[in-house]
């Protein structure tokens, strides 16, 4: 059944999803099928020939319009209807296709926050916290740790450059490869970018060996108590943040070194420098 999700329309699963009770919503088989069936659906529907006013009404925060759309097209009802709505809004927030302010308001709508289902209430709260935590244009908490040279370093000290924070775990091979690529990033953007690598506290000898064998640029810090890994709510490694000179978050989703950060930052930097030049005139 899961394989069919790649070629069948979500509406072909109406009977299956309507029959699933909330107690099974976290079951791995259900979550896998659910993700495949409804990922990015609001953007897809809004761009379709029959999308009509879907984008406009979403940006207007019209929850009734969205409910009618899902009920009419996908024939869903009950808790699964609300779960699909939240999934669509979650993906829409990160798509860049809709007003983020409107999406935030819709996720906090009383339909979800006061829902009789505790699962839907909790899902709404979780998504709301996720999208507002260290969101674009919010000030990130300073990271103050001792670097690998024994010096105390704070990420908010230098206000002349942008800051690239990379949370990583040396025990993970993928993190090692990302960190090895950091020299390329540094060579291209050293004039405009400070690099901070915040490592999970693992075998100190293994960390020293890795750093000695590889030319990793920037400030290398070990989060011995995982305090900043927790405050930044790092769920997986590597995870990255781009901050401006005022320690404000630039992107909602900052790319890791090997995942396209150079292109992401390069494009942004050209536009930012051009705009600042215009503002000076």
Shape: globular
Number of helices: 14
- Tell me the structural class: alpha/beta
Task: Please give the order of strands in the largest beta sheet.
Answer: 5-4-3-6
Radius of gyration: 22 Å
Provide the β-strand percentage band.
5-15%
- What are the segments in which pLDDT stays under 50 over at least 5 consecutive residues? 1-7
**Mean of residue pLDDT values:** 91
Give a count of the beta strands, DSSP E runs of length 2 or more. Answer: 6
* Helix amount: 40-55%
Helices and strands, in order, run as HHHHHHHHHEEEHHEHEHEH
Oligomer: single chain
Give the end-to-end Cα distance, rounded to a whole number of Å: 61 Å
Largest sheet: 4 strands, mixed
What does this structure look like?
- The protein is α/β, with parallel strands linked by helices and 281 residues long.
- It is built from 14 helices and six strands.
- The strands form two sheets. It has a four-stranded mixed sheet. The protein has a two-stranded antiparallel ribbon with strand order 1-2.
- Helix 6 packs parallel to helix 9.
- The longest helix has 20 residues.
- It is globular, with a radius of gyration of 22 Å.
- The protein starts with 13 loop residues before the first helix and ends with a helix.
